[in-house]
Design brief:
With 331 residues, the chain is mainly beta. 8% of the residues lie in helices and 14% in strands.
Length: 331
Amino acid sequence: MCVYTLCVSIQKLLDRRGESEESGDDDTRRRSINGDVDPNQPAGTSESRFDVDLVHCRIGKIEGLEVLQKAKTLSLRQNLIKKIENLESLSLLQELDLYDNQIRKLENLSNLKELELLDVSFNILRKVENLEGLTKIKKLFLVHNKVTAISNLDHLTSLEMLELGSNRIRVIENLDALSSLQSLFLGTNKITKLQNLDSLHNLTVLSIQSNRITKIEGLQNLVNLKELYLSHNGIEVIEGLENNKKLTTLDVAANRVKKIENVSHLTELQEFWMNDNQIDNWSDLDELKNAKSLETVYLERNPLQKDPQYRRKIMLALPTVRQIDATFIRF
């Protein structure tokens, strides 16, 4: 594998590659940029995989990449790109990173049939569109744009991770076709209700932090869910988790919860985040006693913390715990 870290022109890259291929020496052709022979590259061939890194190079336009037809990874992070274009020749590309540019529209990606990862986070997108040809994509990152709706994803049936945090989404919708989805991130939007998640049977991670949710509901079909993040919402009651028995992490921090309840059946819990709520009764900790693998609990900034024996009482009530808030227990 040839890994190029570049803030030089594409032509310089081509010149370097050309010099190696014209040498006529099989071992030379098999050498990576640091001079080591690639054991996976057979002698007598010049096949190479190029991971191209053009980060923070003040690139204003995507052009001149035709020489990189064998590239599998292309990173154009932190540039000044305004339009996705001139990528047609990179048909073998598996990862495309356009994080932190000035892109306003998803377009001109249809020829990237092998693409498995696309990151267009921190741009100026208002709509999810024109991804129909990306049927192999597994990870899609659209963090911190101006997207107002979840749409045009039905054809992405191989998608395993969807990150739409820090947008302007109000409704969870149009996810029914994403049966392979394992991780869904929707933090820092304007979502008011947990809904339309029933078809996501393979989902293991769900993060909807910093939204406007007031009720835990709509999770009954997510039987494989392992991590649930609901901090910084307006939730008042822990409920609706009857079928989520595989949960290992439950984060309900920074809500309006007054009582720890309806979690005694979550026997696989390892982390329980309940800081910044209104818990004032020590007997509530009995709800966590069935979680024999519980190692971390966050209860700081609840009325309970005013007790001088705060840490000691948690240790006595939950003897498996190894971390209370941000501090590990010393034995």
